[in-house]
Write a structure and sequence with these properties.
homohexamer; mainly alpha; AhpD-like; elongated
Amino acid sequence: MAVLPPLSDADASPEARAVFDQIRASRKTDFINNFWRVLAHDPPQLKATWERLSGVMGPGSLDPLVKELIYIAVSTANGCSYCIHSHTAAARAKGMSEAQHAELIAVIGMAAQTNAMVTALQVPVDQVFQAELP
Amino acid sequence: MAVLPPLSDADASPEARAVFDQIRASRKTDFINNFWRVLAHDPPQLKATWERLSGVMGPGSLDPLVKELIYIAVSTANGCSYCIHSHTAAARAKGMSEAQHAELIAVIGMAAQTNAMVTALQVPVDQVFQAELP
Amino acid sequence: MAVLPPLSDADASPEARAVFDQIRASRKTDFINNFWRVLAHDPPQLKATWERLSGVMGPGSLDPLVKELIYIAVSTANGCSYCIHSHTAAARAKGMSEAQHAELIAVIGMAAQTNAMVTALQVPVDQVFQAELP
Amino acid sequence: MAVLPPLSDADASPEARAVFDQIRASRKTDFINNFWRVLAHDPPQLKATWERLSGVMGPGSLDPLVKELIYIAVSTANGCSYCIHSHTAAARAKGMSEAQHAELIAVIGMAAQTNAMVTALQVPVDQVFQAELP
Amino acid sequence: MAVLPPLSDADASPEARAVFDQIRASRKTDFINNFWRVLAHDPPQLKATWERLSGVMGPGSLDPLVKELIYIAVSTANGCSYCIHSHTAAARAKGMSEAQHAELIAVIGMAAQTNAMVTALQVPVDQVFQAELP
Amino acid sequence: MAVLPPLSDADASPEARAVFDQIRASRKTDFINNFWRVLAHDPPQLKATWERLSGVMGPGSLDPLVKELIYIAVSTANGCSYCIHSHTAAARAKGMSEAQHAELIAVIGMAAQTNAMVTALQVPVDQVFQAELP
């Protein structure tokens, strides 16, 4: 399925190809996945998204693998099939073990279950969990 | 807001109070938050949920703090205000720094943004991301 | 919270008040809840929504109480706090017992959990579950 | 995928075929898309849905193209792949340019990102944004 | 699509095959659907999920068919294609008629519509719908 | 509710206050709403978010008011109460009439309803709606 075709290197504009080159250099692979090839229809959006994503997902206070797990969790709750596939692959590339994957699934499932129970019961937020407002 | 009131210790059944005692012993605090007090209307559900949750969220291949971050991510995507409040408190209790919290927010926001872009564009899943089916 | 105030009978237009009267007659109560009082800013929308809702939620192949349970389930997954409150009240008025409410919460929680696990794992749909396409 | 097959003209009931004829006349095309062909299993629902949809999406205070953009935005947030495909096609038929499509994607992505950040941070609603309640 | 392949009986561990046997005995069929075959990568999760699911979905205060309708409703709002397919099949196996299916779709659609309208209008919850808090 | 308090001008860092000044200059008002005051705990995130948001929401191929309507639509489907309040206020400030607001609500409700019906029925995407893949 698609509403816009992924662009091959030949069909992409020079500005988009320049971003492809950055992605290739950063990831040390020739492969460019479809997200970037579809975004290439809008080169400034492609460039801005790549720059933010590589900044946000890089090393910081949280480990890059932990960030991938969070990404999978959000993508699951949002039902983004593409994102689940691509970030599960990314997590594996960053060292996610089968046992970690299984625990991730368990935590996501547990959170979804209690989210639904809390929402169906409309549980009031405890005072102690709330920041004091000025 | 609530569709069922949280039950005080005095109003909870002996079976529910026994779970409250387990929670207190496990968490080393007297405080019982409203989720458990509302679930106390259905003591078997209370007991089963506590047992699964403490199992899933305990130590394993993933660090307990990492599990809390994943929980916050799912709860955010599901819009569960109570869950975001309670698990942000839990993450802080397990050592989440302000810088880690800020990165968590950034990753959640980035994931939500690209989830939406991918979905709006209906990007086709790359073959390389898919498990081979039998 | 509100982006438009609920309209009192005095502030509503004659067209909106006529719908209020239909609701009162149908429900055999003088009380008009805020959903209808906010919709009263757009009387044709108020009228159309009331007519469809009372048609869809009335007796048919499914029991009206069962329809309320389905409504609560959808409202929970969509995170609509108002809708959960109002349809839980409606389900109780139609005879939902505490035990049925507890089972409803359990089913909603179980479904949310397996939905999330299935989505995180991207389980392929079995051939036998799919309708044959022409 | 499907849980009910789309009905061909030959398989549809006379009541459903009459709605197909209305759709064809209104859209000035012979083509009937699968949404209507699946709904044809329930002719009264087919008829009611078509009548409401054509009313809501027709000219009014908002331009029909603007309505299509709003439809795509909602369908994206709800993850409805079919709806994104069909309403992107409808928007193009109503004149959506490539540049407008690109801006739509950017706004949807930005909204999803800030929605998630606001929710993760549980930002309190400013008093000035709230309607005064009676 | 898949991020982990479904396991055949030959590839599953003895612990997973034991759960397959329980499913077969309980459902009186040899067929094991993909959800269980993918979960078989994590046998304790497979076992726990099957035990909870068969407990929750079994007879109680709510009819098993009603529970399937609730499951379909939640799965629809969460956009879980696999779950909609499998639980629609389950509901049919438990006696759901075409007329009941059509009413289910109508209630789900109506709930989704009013959920969205209520949310867009931020309708304040009526006092009478709220449980009294201690 | 809040997990982090909004920062007053006095409590914000110089870097954050500089962004507040940009917002004030751009919007020609002294008022800074809570989203920015909470983001001020992470000044680089505050700065980056303001710059992207003001870029995306400014004039382009789509009218700024149309962009606000799209923002409200996404925020509604994501259940972001804060965002609905703030962007409804923004839309009014950019000239949204009561009639346009009423139509927006109607389109959002219609989209949510058909999204749910399509998803519950798992309608297959028509070939004609799909981009040709390379």
